[in-house]
Amino acid sequence: MKKLFSVLFASLLFCATNAQADVNPAKAEEFIKNVTTQGIEELINSNVSDAERNARFTKLFNQDLDLDFIGKFVLGRYWRTATPKQREEFIDVYRKLNIKTWSERFNEFKGKHFEFLGTETSKSEDQIFVNTQVPMQEGAPASVKWRVKDNNGTMRIVDIIIENVSLAQTARSEYTSYIQKSPNGIDGLIQDLKAKLK
């Protein structure tokens, strides 16, 4: 039995290693360079209205972030018990809230540029981290790490980690706590997120 378990474990480890090896580090880094230079930096440094900036961020984030994948992750175990209508409403409001939040958050980097510090492997299959930093006027550079997933050759961002704080993990923890405490459960969370949009 022990021998069989060892063989199975080795096989799983081999498969996981191969899956990680399939993620091309150079391609992942090039993808993030395009997102940051041709997307984020160009947007935050352009002289356009807030409405235009938000519209372009919406297009950028819908294109380069896998917000459906992230939304399922942050809802955690409650995704399995949610109704189709709740899932649809949650993903919709979560997508809109993230676009609004990040169009404002990245504005803090106005006039600055991302510097690239290489990549590192992830324990998750078909994913890799791209490490960047943004020099600030005061103090140490701001650390920004991008978790990139390779979806059959198409790169998508599935998490952004700023100063060692994972946005996906933080949202998952907050949403789980909210659902547990709310008498309306998932519906209560959805209504709360809609209120934050306003």
How far is it from the N-terminal to the C-terminal residue, by CA?
A: 58 Å
Spatial extent as radius of gyration: 19 Å
Structural class: alpha+beta
Give the SSE order as H and E letters.
HHHHHHEEEEEHH
> Which fold name corresponds to the CATH topology?
Nuclear Transport Factor 2, Chain: A
For the biggest sheet, the summary is: 5 strands, antiparallel
CATH superfamily: Tgt2/MlaC
Indicate the mean pLDDT: 84
Strand content: 15-25%
Shape descriptor: globular
Helix content: 55-70%
**Poorly predicted tracts of residues:** 1-21
What does this structure look like?
The longest helix is centred in the middle third of the chain and has 22 residues. The N and C termini lie far apart (58 Å). The chain has a five-stranded antiparallel β-sheet with strand order 1-2-3-4-5. Helix 3 packs across helix 6. A hairpin with a 2-residue loop joins strand 4 and strand 5. It has a single domain, classed as Tgt2/MlaC (Nuclear Transport Factor 2, Chain: A, Roll), CATH 3.10.450. The N terminus is likely disordered. It has 198 residues and is α+β, with helices and mostly antiparallel strands. The chain is built from eight helices and five strands, in the order H-H-H-H-H-H-E-E-E-E-E-H-H.
